[in-house]
Write a structure and sequence with these properties.
Two copies of one chain form a homodimer. By secondary structure, chain A is an alpha+beta fold. Chain A has helices at residues 6-19, 28-41, 67-73, 79-91, 110-118, 139-142, 167-180, 194-200, 205-217, 227-235, 335-341, 355-360, and strands at 2-4, 44-47, 57-65, 95-100, 122-123, 125-126, 150-153, 159-163, 184-188, 192-193, 202-203, 238-253, 256-265, 273-279, 281-287, 290-294, 298-303, 320-326, 364-365. In chain A, the strands form four sheets. In chain A, strands 17-18-12-13-14-15-16-19 form an eight-stranded antiparallel β-sheet. In chain A, strands 3, 4, 7, 8, 9 and 10 form a six-stranded mixed β-sheet that branches. In chain A, a hairpin with a 2-residue loop joins strand 12 (238-253) and strand 13 (256-265). In chain A, helix 1 crosses helix 9. The N and C termini of chain A lie far apart (47 Å). Chains A and B meet through helix 4, strand 8 and helix 7 of A and helix 4, strand 8 and helix 7 of B. Strand 8 of chain A pairs antiparallel with strand 8 (159-163) of chain B, so a sheet runs across the interface. Chains A, B: This is DUF917 domain-containing protein. Chains A, B: Residues 166-355 form the S-Me-THD-like C-terminal domain. Chains A, B: Residues 8-163 form the S-Me-THD N-terminal domain.
Chain lengths: 366, 366
């Protein structure tokens, strides 16, 4: 058990924007909410997964909808209490702790705000180890855990509990309510006991996020390492391409931001071209026609000078970025994992080949 | 307490199609469901409102969505059990009885099916005394009762509980889920205690429905009365116009069927013209430019020979109908009632004048 205070929030938010793999929403607004909650209610206790009793009720907290809407519409501040009351009443049992379901992007921050406001600890664990666009894309789905009972509340005080036959139906129904509530809501989903959390969760991901954030902040202060070396070492990342953004094609399809980014190489990559595709999060990167990485591995664009992550919202012509590959959580590499979040699920016509094998082989033909 | 068996179901269904005031959906399909449930599980106990203890939990049952979709999509049979379990778990208390929320149309029948399948009694009471198109249009809204907690389930087994800040928000969110579930679902709403039901409900409306159905079936067997006299006497109705349908204009706007019916007089009404407007239910009737009746009074079209009600779905060129006015429940005539369901709410540019006064004065100018 240790404390998350304002300084830790800054580091976790920075690391979470890297784990967002381009998507998940810029944690900035979420960070303001976490900071506001800690300033009002005091710091949050972060507890290790193993500290949680097997029968304790864990309530993962997230926002559902468009992060861009969240930034404009805001939150009411009372959502966590409303959702806590509804879940406790439904279960007839007290919630022991909150946790993030998505460590990447803005959803890394809301559980911190919730924990502070509810006076509950937060578990150092999530269900993705990154960001993903759909509700059923969590390790707990592989474990057969239901997303429901799921609670949803808006900033006006409306709240809803869903009990669905599949996690795809949860996505469908909760998405409809989210739209009616204005496009961004707070949810508690995959409410589970401690045993389940320990069996399927991505453990210590909040600590990893914090470490990544701290490392990015300190890339220029590492003796014997260039900033790029320091960044790749700390993140255990693969530098797949360095280039200048020369085009960004965007399309909004239903609830998703789709698109592709075209890059022209700089430095060692001069004369080469790369393409990154995304659906909220980055899906694939191809260099001169050879795929270098695909989902579920993390494809992250970072600024070539500061190594701060560049989300899809912040893509701009002329920006110089390094395309970095990070290995995804092992469970995503199993057959069950790839059925949920593999390249074919996202419409890419390629099998999944682990990042490190693609790098070794110099990529594969498209 | 008395029994509702197959014979009673037939009469209630026929009476309910009159109380539907043109809308509420043809009770035919609901009748099949009620009959199926009674054949499988035995007859239903109908209990008087006064027989219900003050603290007993009453669960009103209805379908939400388009009755035309219900007829095609059907139901799964297990909805009542799913909704019962969800409500009981949420309240932490057993449900004592079901009741209809809308005595007109198809929603008159589903609580009978629910009562039979759950082995619970049904209370002889509803919240409308007729049919209305929106969820907040119930006497309980006047009493300040919340529509929520409201439970919703589809035929696949998905279920949802809503807790909203206003009954208009319930309508908004539940409508969105209803659409996602395919356009027709089963709901339990305005779940309340016996005390509230007795204070605001429209009492003995199921018995009235049954009496109306029986009367329609027997209009030709009344000594000293013509069938029309027998019908008007039993229903305490006002014969406002008799005519032939010469045009039907329909428009589907969002979730509603809007339109107008043009009639040319027959018999005593030869040479006159009438117009009936509707939004699911009939809203107003105008004869030669003078309004004869408006919502919330019931405007019902019945066949001139059989006196069976004609719903808006069954309107046909050349059909001969009598336009009949029935007085609405007193509570609808209060200021609070008229704010919810008065003519202006439905976009009619007239104040509400009670049916019997309009008839006495020969209608009012449009």
């Amino acid at each position: 058990m240790r404390r998350i205070d304002l300084k830790e929030v800054e580091d976790i938010a920075l690391g979470a924007s890297l784990l967002g793999a381009g998507g998940g929403g810029d944690p900035y607004y979420g960070k303001l909410m976490a900071i506001g909650a800690i300033k009002e209610c005091g710091p949050v206790e972060l507890i290790g997964p193993e500290e949680v009793p097997d029968d304790a009720v864990i309530m993962p907290i997230a926002m559902m909808g468009a992060p861009t809407v969240l930034c404009e519409k805001g939150t009411g501040g009372n959502e966590y209490r409303v959702i806590y009351d509804m879940v406790s009443q439904y279960l007839g049992k007290k919630v022991y702790a909150v946790m993030p379901m998505e460590a990447g992007g803005v959803n890394s921050m809301l559980p911190i705000a919730a924990a502070a406001r509810l006076g509950l600890p937060m578990v150092d664990c999530d269900g993705m180890g990154r960001a993903f666009p759909e509700l059923q894309m969590v390790t707990f789905t592989i474990g057969g855990v239901n997303a429901t009972p799921m609670a949803l509340t808006d900033e006006k005080g409306n709240s809803v509990i869903f009990n669905t036959i599949t996690n795809k139906w949860t996505e469908e129904l909760a998405r409809a309510v989210t739209m009616s509530c204005g496009g961004s809501v707070t949810v508690a989903l995959y409410i589970m006991d401690g045993r389940t959390m320990k069996a399927y969760g991505v453990k210590n991901i909040v600590s990893r996020s914090e470490m990544l954030g701290r490392a990015i902040r300190n890339v220029k202060n590492q003796p014997d390492l260039t900033p790029q070396e320091a960044f790749l070492k700390a993140s255990e990342g693969y530098g797949l391409f360095r280039g200048k953004i020369v085009d960004v094609l965007r399309e909004t399809n239903g609830a998703f931001n789709l698109g592709r980014i075209l890059l022209e190489g700089i430095g060692d990559f001069r004369g080469k071209k790369a393409e990154v595709t995304f659906q909220n999060e980055n899906l694939s990167v191809t260099v001169d026609g050879r795929i270098c990485a695909t989902v579920p591995d993390l494809i992250c664009l970072v600024d070539t000078e500061t190594f701060t992550p560049v989300t899809t919202e912040a893509l701009k012509y002329g920006k110089r970025v390094m395309v970095t590959g990070l290995k995804c959580y092992d469970m995503w590499r199993t057959q069950a994992g790839l059925e949920l979040v593999g390249p074919r699920y996202f419409g890419l016509d390629t099998d999944y080949i682990p990042l490190e094998e693609r790098v070794k082989g110099g990529g594969s033909d498209v």
